[in-house]
Each structure stands twice: as C-alpha cells, then as structure tokens.
Amino acid sequence: MRQTIINVSNRLPVTVGEQIKRSSGGLVAALEGMGDERFDLKWLGWPGGEVPDPARRAEVERTLESEFGCVPVFLTREEADGHYEGFSNTSVWPLLHYLPTMFRYETPWWDHYRNVNGKFADKVLSIARDGDLVWVHDYQLMLLPAMLKEAKPSLRIGFFLHTPFPSYEVFRCHPKREELVLGLLGADQIGFHTFGYLRHFRSSVLRLLGVDSEVTRIRHHGHTARLGVYPIGINAPRFAEELDKPEYRQKVEHFRDVYRGKRLILSVERLDYTKGLLRRLDAIDLFLSERAPDERDTIKFIFISIPSREGVDEYRVLREDVEARIGRLNGKYATLNNSPIHFIHGSVTFTDLCALYGSAAVGMVTPLVDGMNLVAKEYVACQRDDPGVLVLSEFAGAAEELFHALLVNPYDPGTMAAAMREALAMPPEERRRRMAPMREHVMRLDAARWAKSFIDDLASRSVAPEQAHPAEEASRRLQDALSAGRRVALFLDYDGTLREIERDPAAATPNAAVRAVLDALARRKQDVDVTIISGRTPQDLESFLRGYDFGLIAEHGAVVRRPGHPEWERADTNVSYAWKGDILNVLRPYQESTPGSFIEDKRTSLVWHYRRADPEFGEWKAKQLATDLSAMLSNEPINVRHGKKIVEVTASHVNKGAAVMRCLEGRQYDLVLVAGDDTTDESMFRLDLRNLISVRVGDAEDSHATYSVPSPREMRRFLEKAIRHPTGVPQPSSG
User: Fold this and answer.
1) What is the model's pLDDT at position 293?
2) Nearest Cα residue to 164 out of 370, 405, 325, 413
C-alpha cells in the first residue's frame, strides 16, 4: 500500500494569479521524485496571496488539488504580514542567523504566528490519516509539530530547519524561546544541515527546558524526538542536463565575447543582510586598491542580487546601501575601458545562470552565516570543463562538505581580498585537483538523495499510538481496589512527581492542575489515605498544602505528620548531625566556584542546589562533589544522594522508605502505592510489601519501580483516572 507524505511549507510551489503556474526551487526539486511507487505526495501551504472572494477561493482550491497535488491554507493579508514579514522574518530570522541587532519583536506578531500555525494544523488534520508522514519545513512553522502530535499522535511528523540554529546565547534573546523549542519537540524526526546546528539545538533544549538529551535523541513528556544531520543538495540532474544543451554552449560563447579579455568573479544571492554583501564590497575595495589601473581592466565583478522581502524595512535600506556603495566603487575604480562591478537587481534565466557559473573564474560565496548555501553547490556543478575556484565563507553550512574551496572569514576583508588574488593566480592543475572531488560530491549527494534520506528515517520511526500505557496495569489495580471498597494508601513525592520542577524551588506552589488532583484525592478520604513526601522543610510543605488533611513526610523522611494528625513526629531522635560543619566546609568552595548554585542548610541535611547554574557545568561539578563526598564519608553512617539538580548529604538512617514504613505501622491497607521521580525515592521502590505498587515518573532506566509514567502531567492523569472513575471506565481528564 502506498504511503502518504504531506509536505508542509510556508509557501506552495505555485504562483497564483490570473493563471496558476508551478514554481521552481530546491525543495521542489528535492521532492519531485518522492511521489514514486512508495508514496503519494501532497503539498500543503499558503498560495502566496489573499483570495477574499469565496467563489474564486473554491476555484483555486479545486485547481490546486486536481492539477498540482496542492492543498492551500488561505490567509488574510493581515495574518500573512504578521506571521511572515513580522514574526518569521523580523523576529526569528535574525536570531537564527546570529544577528540580534536586526531583531525586533511585537506581541501582535506572535499572536498571528501562533494562529497561522494553528490554521496549518487544522488543514493537515483535515486530510491526514493514521500513520501518514507529515514533513514540516522551516522556521515559519516551528509550533506546528507539537500541535499535530497533540491532536493526532499516530502521525509520523518530521521537521527540517533550512537555516542555521544558533547558539543558546543568541536564541535565548527571543521572548518566545521556550514555546518555539517545545513546538519542535513534537516532531518524531528533526533534521539540520550540520551537526553544529543540531548541537546548538540540544544546548537550547537543555538550558531552556532543563531536558537532558542524547546525541541524536531527546525524550520529553513521554515522547522521543530523534535528531539527524541531512545536508541538502541541488537538483543535480537538471544542471547536468543543462550543461549538454546547445543553448548553454551558445550562452557561454556569448559571455566570452562580451567579457573578452576579462576574468569574471561572480556573486549570486538573495538581497539579504545575512549574505555579507557590504563586507564583500569592502574586500573588493581593498582588492582593487592594490592593483594598477591596467590590471583592474582585466577583472569584472558580476553581482546578481535576487529581490527579497522588499516589504521589510531592513531590506529596503540594505538595497539602497548596496547600490550606493557599488556606485562609489565604480566611480572610484572605473577606467575608460571598464567599470569593475556589474550589479543586476533581479532574476536571470536558468540557462544564463548556468553559463555565468561555467564562465566565472571565481565563484564568490561569502555569507556572514548560512544554513547551507546552494549557490556554492550550483557553481561547483557547472565547473565541468575548465574549472574555476570557489571562495567560500567558513560560516556557510556548505563549507563542511566543500572543504577543497578557499575558505574565508567573511568578517575579514583582507582575507577575502587575499583569497581572490590566490584564486586568480591558481594554476589549472590545482584548480582541477580542488574542484573534481567537490563536483563528484555535489552531483552524487543531490536534493533527491537528501529528501529520500530524511523520509526513510521518518518512515522507520515507530509511534505505536495504540500501545498500552506503561502504567496501565497499575491503573487497573488501583481502580479495582477502589471499586471493591478496599483501603488504599498513597505516598506521593511532590517536586517532579505531582508538580513540575521549577528553576526557583519557591515557585513550585500547587498550580491549578495540581490542585485539581489534590481536591479529588481529598474527596476520597473515606477509603484513601494520602501522604505527600518531599525533601522540603515541614514549614514549606505546610505552606504549600494548607487546607489539605494529608499526611506529610518532610526532609526525605526525617519528619513525619500522619494523615489527620496535626503533630509532627521526628524520625531521627537518636541521629547525630555533628558532621554538618565539616560537610559545609566541603560544599562552600563548590558554591563559590559554580555561579547560580547555593547551599540549603536543613536541620537534618545539607543540600547543594545547582538548578540555576549552567546545566552542563553544574552537572560536571555535581559529579565531582558527589565523588569527593562519597570517598570522604565511605565509613560514616551518612548518605550522599545525587538527585535532580541537587547533591544532598543526610544521615543513612533517614530515608523515604523508612518514613513510609513508619507511617504504615499499626495500619492495614489492601494496597499501597508509592510514586517518585529520582534517586531519593528508590528506598520506597525497594520496600518488601506484597501489596505494593511503585511508579517512577520520568526515565525509569535503572529504577526499582515496577511501573513508570513519563511526566508529572501524566502522573496527575493517572491519579485522576483511578480516583475519579474507580469503575475502570476512562473519562476525559483536565490534567
């Protein structure tokens, strides 16, 4: 059976006017071969203009679907401007390209961006079936993967970012940084051009969300997003075919006649501030200043600048600056025989472009930063007969593949000028030696291979939407016990189990979702005894849970308040804490050398918190500290626990498991459920009770818990389902 690929991009590959015409482009070329015997390809996106008339809209929709295999998402002019020109290109684009000084943000843009992503989601869901592949492209639709996964988990969702992903220090500037990252994590497969971009994304996930990851996998709230590197290629067959056409050879001869006696240095790009045009002009100024007038006559710079985003103020200003600068340079270095720079603000035909590529002695591709830059690969593809030299920015993604080029720092005009001199002086044998392996690579690893590689990986991902929840059996056991009127005890950790962990521990007060569960538990007090467990102080727990008659276990088991009792009992009356002074002397240097960390001095323990420290540095220091303390205290009745963003030192007689057993003394329960999320809860999971249910929240690897749920949100749903609906009939949840 053929599988469906729903390809989702901001723009459809068509131009809608009086007539509807198919557009060309790298992504179009990459996907042309995907609608083969394996797949049915549908393309979903904005048709590129407002179609307010309902009759015309219906006509466009029918034509697009029947003749082009396209599904349009219609937007108003206001929506398109706010989503595309505003949020996408004035807010997100500059940061993705390391240019925070060009960044602007307005709240209405975010509203449009979120709403347009929602419109795309609604349209995808209207045509998608279980198991379909949905491939979402680029920064205009960063919220879409999570929207789709939430609504239809059975879809296999891929996302590819065609731009760079910057370092965390740049990306963190965006006011909606967490929302954008969470949107991408809804995908099953996330693709980047280079490993560097993938690494930056993982770093942002870690530092924004506190979510650890493996090199190619991020687990978050029970969902796994796989990461991969997929360098995009060009439509190599089209270039190979063009180079064999008579029209191409005629154009090459024409340009040789027009520029006889001159060597061409060619630049082709969209008019965009990321392309480094002004700095390249600085390099040309330096290059020309070092040459005699008769030498200048032998060089011609050709700039082909494709109009781009002319509705954005920054782009209009850039065009004016570029044209003014080129005018000054032509005036400064012109001779009677030559003006050094020929500037074309517009598109050229494909044949003309290939002929210019093939005729140019130097291809000058020096963006300040670029996700890939296919111009570099197009130039290489056309260097078949008498190869020239590629001068390439080291900050273009293509530099990782085209390393035989002359790589330059685009911020250094002197380096670029020197590279131009070296390229023009390079002997033919050296040019061929450099160009041959690059051309073989470009022609072999083309756009179709890129698309196939990503789709094959996405198709192999198993989403298994109908599998039973890992804790389904535990849920049934709890429901059955309550349905039969049996007595149940619940021992529930707080931070990380009932409530999501906050960077500031004081901010983790019960929110609406937590209170809904607590209220439901309180209403079942006739057959359910609830005890909340935490490493927090008794005062903290009383403040957080005021109004609930639950049992409380504080400081990881040192202090206990039984359900329905107002008095606290000390479980450590015979325990000495004389060791605390010595341990403080060990902790203080770690606090001082780890910005963002702090020491909490409890009566029964010492805790070094590093949640607000840099996560990688903090984790490294925590491992050092835990190792030092374990060696120091190996013969002492003291435990060292490396928990979630803490290292805690406490007496070995004090633990949550012992506190649970203390609460169970003298009481009979038909079922005991314990739930927690880190190593401090393992003592509960190891209890030898015949009627015990143990649930680990989060990653359950190396845990003694019998069951697991992925997140506090799912733990709340687990409890709501059992407590509110003990008959075993699932009902909607508000968790």
Assistant:
1) 85
2) 370
CB 657 within 8 A of CB 687: yes
CA torsion through residues 716, 718, 719, 721, sign: positive
Please tell me the distance from the alpha carbon of residue 593 to that of residue 583, in angstroms, as a whole number: 16
DSSP-assigned beta bridge partners for residue 303:
267, 343
pLDDT in tens, 194-206: 999 999 999 999 9
CB atoms within 10 A of CB 392: 30
Residue 363's nearest CA partner among 431, 287, 412 is 431
Radius of gyration of the chain from its Cα atoms, rounded to whole angstroms = 32
Q: Give the pLDDT confidence of 546-598 residue by residue, as tens digits.
A: 999 999 999 888 899 998 888 999 877 777 888 999 999 999 999 999 999 99
The DSSP letter of residue 2 is P
Pairwise CA distance, residues 220 & 28, whole Å: 33
Task: Decide: 146 and 185 in contact? Cβ < 8 Å.
Answer: yes
- Burial (CB count <10 Å: 0-12, 13-18, 19+), residue 617: middle
The residues with which 393 forms a beta bridge, in sequence order, are 408
Active site residues: 493
For residue 339, the one-letter residue type is S
- Residue 19: exposed, middle, or buried by beta-carbon count in 10 A (0-12, 13-18, 19+)? exposed
Please list, in sequence order, all residues whose beta carbon lies within 8 angstroms of the beta carbon of residue 82, skipping any fewer than 6 positions away. Answer: 108, 109, 111, 112, 113, 116
* pTM summary value: 0.84
Helix or strand (DSSP H, E) at 639: strand 638-643
- Closest to 25 in 3D by CA, of 4, 5, 48: 48
The secondary structure of 197-250 as a DSSP string is HHHHHHHHHHHHH----BTTEEEETTEEEEEEE------HHHHHHHHTSHHHHH
Residue 729: burial class (beta carbons within 10 Å; 0-12, 13-18, 19+): exposed
Residue 711's alpha-carbon distances to 219, 499, 728, in angstroms, are 11, 9, 22
Q: What are the two backbone dihedrals, phi and then psi, of residue 586, each rounded to the nearest 5 degrees?
A: -80, -40
Decide if 449 contacts 232 (C-beta within 8 A).
Answer: no
Give the sign of the dihedral formed by CA 631, CA 632, CA 635, CA 639: negative
Both tokens assigned to 118: 């929602």
Crossing angle (nearest 10°) for helices 195-209 and 615-632: 70
With b for 16 or more beta-carbon neighbours within 10 A and e for fewer, the 75-112 pattern comes to beeebbebbbbbbbbbbbbbbbbbbeebbebeeebbeb
- State how far the Cα of 69 lies from the Cα of 89, in Å rounded to an integer: 28
Contact at 8 Å (CB) between 690 and 669? Answer: no
C-alpha to C-alpha distance for 384 and 354, rounded to whole angstroms: 11
Ramachandran class of 138: left when φ > 0, alpha when ψ lies in -120 to 50, beta otherwise? left
Residue 409 contacts residue 435 (beta carbons within 8 Å): no
